[in-house]
Structures are given as C-alpha cells and as structure tokens.
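As noted in the main text, all predictions were made from sequence alone. Below is one such record, for Protein-tyrosine phosphatase.
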Amino acid sequence: MNDRPNILVVCGRNKRRSRTAEYIFKNDQRFNIRSVGLSPKSERQIKERDIEWSDLIFVMEDGQGNRISGAFRHLEIPEIEVLQIEDEYEYLDEELIEMLTDRINSTLGVIYNI
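Prediction:
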C-alpha cells in the first residue's frame, strides 16, 4: 500500500450512494477514492482493475461483498466493509452525506488510524 490508501466505494448502479461518497471525499488528502456499481447498467461498472487498485472496498449493503468476491474470485480481494446504507436516498441527499461521512471516517480511523 502506498502512503494514501485507495478506497473503492461500491453500490448497485453507481448513481446515488457510491457517487455521493466519491463526491464528498474526492479532495480528501488522506486517501484516494473511486466509485463503481455492480450492475451492468452502471455508468462505471466494477472491473478487475478497480479491485487491483483498491486497498479497501466499501459496499452499501449485505450481499454486495459476496457478489464482488464471487465475480472476482480469481483475484486477491482487499478487505470489504459494509456501510449498511439502503438504496433509499438521492444523490447528495443531506442524510446520505451525513451517514457516509460518519461511517467511512470511523472505519478509516479504526483500520488506518486516519
């Protein structure tokens, strides 16, 4: 891992939750962030290169981590953390921003002490 960990944020279609996370943390100097979706209909669908790039993966719901592990079983999958955020928020929703900020910051504090 380099000085700044690479954080991959994943949701269903990369339209609201993961894109919001990328937007609010894109200028954070503690880490690099990228967002993708699991669905083939995603604007940016998860690819092998995303898994290889990442040091830590955040998913929004239970089961999404298993989908990643199953689809990319031939790769070494980094740690996957579940944020427990249901798909009921719009892009940049104030409550979504608060939840993402709190949960991502607290997890990064535990894992990387940042």
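The chain has a mean pLDDT of 96. The CA atoms of residues 61 and 86 lie 7 Å apart. These features were considered when defining construct boundaries for the mutagenesis experiments described in Section 2.9.
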